[in-house]
Amino acid sequence: MKLYKGKNASFRAVLLTNGRSVELKIKIKSEKSNPLLRRKEVDFELDHSEEGRTSSRLELKEKLADRLKVKPDLLFVEKFETKTGTTLAQGQANIYESAEQAKLVEREHIIARNSPPAEPEKEKSEEPAKEEQMKEGANKIDTEKEEKPEAPKEKEEKPEAPKEKEEGTE
Predict the structure, then answer these.
(1) Which of 25, 32, 114, 125 is deepest in the core (most CB within 10 A)?
(2) pLDDT of 79-136, one tens digit each?
(3) CATH dotted code for 10-118
């Protein structure tokens, strides 16, 4: 991996995908300190022309953390958009001083996006169980319909209200 130093210098990260190495070119456009929120705000640009696809948020988070020499747990990619028809993506990231500060300041959906996905094995094991429960529930409903025949509905006779006497017919 090669590092290029200097302001607005590009950073090239080698990414292994499908057994071949691909270079991500990350350019830091600006880096601002926000003492009130105790974080650094970074604007970056990513060229993923050699990769052939947009990098995932987690891959980008790891490469940015490596480039900026911070722990990946303290870096949150807030925005990451590829311009239509190009291989250039622009984004914003926040680097916090501590994980506690990040939890206080960062929005919940941003924290969820920057977290690794849940284990897919648990999801797969839950899905068949849910399907079985739905089938059993449908069978119970069918058997209840068979057991309870519908009784014919009788018309309830309502007592008629007394008719008001018309004026002048007394």
Answers:
(1) 114
(2) 999 888 888 899 999 999 999 999 999 999 999 999 988 776 554 555 566 666 666 6
(3) 3.30.70.3370
